[in-house]
Amino acid sequence: MKKAIVLTLLMLACIACFASSEPLRKEIRISTDRVDLILEVAPDQRLYQLYLGERLSDTFNVGLLSRPEYISGNGTLEKRAREVYSCSGNEDYFEPALGIVHADGNRTSYLLFQGVERRAIEGGEETVIHLADNQYPVKVDLHYVSYPKENIIKTWSVISHQEKKPILLTNLYSTMLYMEASKYYLTEFSSDWAEEVREQTQELTFGKKMVDTKLGSRANLFCQPFFEIGLNQPVQEQQGTVLMGTIAWTGNWRYTLEVDNNHLLCVLPGINPTASDYTLKPHTKFVTPEFIFSISFTGRSQASRDFHDWARQYQVKDGMGPRISLLNNWENTYFDFDEAKLAECMKEARKLGVDLFLLDDGWFGNGDNARQGDNAGLGDWEVNHQKLPNGIPGLVQTAKATGVKFGIWIEPEMINPRSELMIKHPEWVIKQPNRETYYYRNQLVLDMANPEVQDYVYHVVESIMTENPEVAFFKWDCNAPITNIYSPYEKTQQGNLYIDHARGVMQVMKRVATNYPDVPMMLCSGGGGRCDYEALKYFTEFWCSDNTDPVERIFIQWGFSQFFPAKAMCAHVTSWNKSASVKFRTDVASMCKLGFDIGLKELSDDELAYCKSALANWKQLTPAILDGDQYRLVSPYETNHMAVNYVSKDQSLAVLFAYDLHPRFSETLHKVCLQGLNPKAVYKIEEVNLMPGSSSDLKFNGCVVSGEYLMKVGLDALTCQSMKSRVVTFVQQ
Ligand code: GLA
After folding, report:
1. CA of 433 to the centre of ligand 1 (A)
2. Which end of the chain has fewer CB atoms < 10 Å from its terminal CB, N or C?
3. Where in the chain is the domain with CATH 3.20.20.70?
């Protein structure tokens, strides 16, 4: 009887969880306001993609859609069938989304439709399509979350089974999407340390192009986890059809882009299978990473704004909340500091007007393992008593007395061989038992597949917060990829390591974010090595690059802005490239989440006054820069200039950033036409961020003009001077 009640309650809970359950039907439509993805359950109960493109009207008869390619009656493949989640060993001879080796060694799987459920979620709708093999007890649920207004679809798959023994997963893509066009152009973003997000475009022709990483501990270093595909023409800002996608996974990922013999493009985003054939135990679930995509029919600029809107509202930690400005001590002191020096830095933070002082690397480790450089101390998260006799509480107190908040750097998943932790727990380290160890930045990665290690890493944050509840910011670094791939914890299942490690990292991040929801946190990874949308669920922002040369930053920020809102991108004023003025450096950093990493002694009185007023201006302009819409106007890839404007959501405030990099002698200068303003409203133009004693030479400065004028006629905002920057505000009158 009791059992029956429990079962009934469970069933009711399931019904409550899914608001409505639809009967089996032929077409499944997943829509945003601008895109339709229409799937079809064929008579053989397999699921195929029928349509992916511009949204069809509500009255459109979806029944009229048919796939041009079908498997012919006698079962031979005439053209690719466009199965939605094709498996290894079936008659689609292209790269499968899912590869399974069943417990009996059979490598084929056929997924048949079982049902579909839909439910409302915040901002959109979730569709779950249930599939199952009819010969093996294997189930796959395809999840699609559509955000109609933001034109974003997020999709992932859940694989489970009840075979008697574990099965092996060999291909682990999150989804499969098919596109049809006369030509396909891929824009990808290669990278390296201090060279993040270098945009390049190539045509995709017959065969496969793979874009991937195998760093283990982070989403990116040599290659960013996002791509753009222009259909029929290379990707453009303002026109053309473009698919933009990114994967939410702090680990090894791969995009396989395959153009088949019929010139159909198949997009496969997912986990990188290299060294990752995953052993899945019976009665457990394998959840693939989320793949997030948008299709714009008016160029990538619109899709970027859609990503920004969606990310702030639904994905990034505290995406709609305010951001704090800070002064970091890394480039100012490196490892060489003590309490007196830090007290001085805090005073400088106060003088500048930032909200917080951020203490970087070098505050922990003792004795032989003191963190005096990057070769010792990681893993020993006890304050260095010699440098900081009053501990973190002492620093928090000093910050408080000075009138700034206090934040701290950690790199908790890492270990130096010179550490107490290495002596205590050598079995916690990813390291080959029988080969020479290769060190990257003198460090190794902790084995985050191991729950004990996860707890240890979580407690790094917890113990700082317990001792110092007033700590108001964390910078969480990750300076090494996984080398010497071997986990003592995984034992004979080494193929699970990369995946379980990434999951372990994300679980700890989630635990931290859940328990400290109000503490802003910055992702960092040897510069911009971690900026995926899974980690960003738990972090408010990320460090774009250790390269803070403002000219380089113009390109780097341009690149990241394709997918990430300015609000999530940290940019600091430093002393890289002193040939650029402090104004130029500050103006470039002001396009994102502004901070400083510079000793004030390096600044003249005028420069300091400039920084203070630029920071005050930036704070006023955050409704446009951080929370508004961004329009990339002039590309640094195509010209010797760059310009971008931001508009607040109510269109009452806009700001234009215009830069002259290295213009040619007497170059023809074009007017800069703004975008996103209210054409009927009138705006007062004011150039701000002027050095003390200088005045604006901008034509129409101080004038009131219409939004229409600014967007159709434009402003003479560019010049032929090298390294000149302009910040111009537009306030609706
Ligand atoms: C990485 C970060 C830097 C700094 C150092 C400290 O390189 O990107 O900002 O925190 O680590 O070691």
Report:
1. 29
2. N
3. 326-630
CA 477 to chain CA centroid, Å, is: 15
Are 540 and 475 contacting, i.e. CB atoms less than 8 angstroms apart? no
Q: How confident is the model at residue 564 (pLDDT cuts 50, 70, 90)?
A: very high
> 569-603 pLDDT, tens per residue?
999 999 999 999 999 999 999 999 999 999 999 99
CB of 360 shorter than 6 A to ligand 1: yes
Query: Does residue 479 have its Cβ closer than 6 Å to ligand 1?
Result: yes
Reply yes or no on domain 631-732 having CATH 1.20.210.10. no
Residue ranges of the chain that CATH labels 2.70.98.60? 26-315
**Best CATH choice for the domain 326-630 from the list 1.10.260.40, 3.20.20.70, 3.30.565.10, 3.40.50.720:** 3.20.20.70
Classified by CATH at the fold level, domain 26-315 comes out as Beta-galactosidase; Chain A, domain 5 (2.70.98)
- The β-bridge relationship of strands 521-523 and 471-476 is parallel
pLDDT in tens, 484-501: 999 999 999 999 999 999
| Structure tokens belonging to residue 549 | 């040369």
526 in ligand 1 pocket by Cβ < 6 Å? yes
Question: What is the SS3 assignment for 498-537?
Answer: HHHHHHHHHHHHHHHHHHCCCCCEEECCCCCCCCCCCHHH
Q: Whose CA is nearest to atom 6 of ligand 1?
A: 361
pTM (two decimals): 0.95
Any atom of ligand 1 within 6 Å of the Cβ of 710 = no
**For 380-428, how does the pLDDT look when each residue is reduced to its tens digit (9 = 90+)?**
999 999 999 999 999 999 999 999 999 999 999 999 999 999 999 999 9
Nearest to residue 268, comparing CAs of 313, 208, 192, 314? 208
525-550 pLDDT, tens digit per residue, is 988 879 999 999 999 999 999 999 99
Q: From CA 577, how far away is CA 534, in angstroms rounded? A: 33
Q: How confident is residue 73, by pLDDT bands cut at 50, 70 and 90?
A: low
Q: Choose which residue among 442, 478, 524, 573 to substitute to test ligand 1 binding: the one with the highest number of ligand atoms within 8 A of its C-beta.
A: 524
Residue intervals in the chain for CATH 2.60.40.1180: 631-732
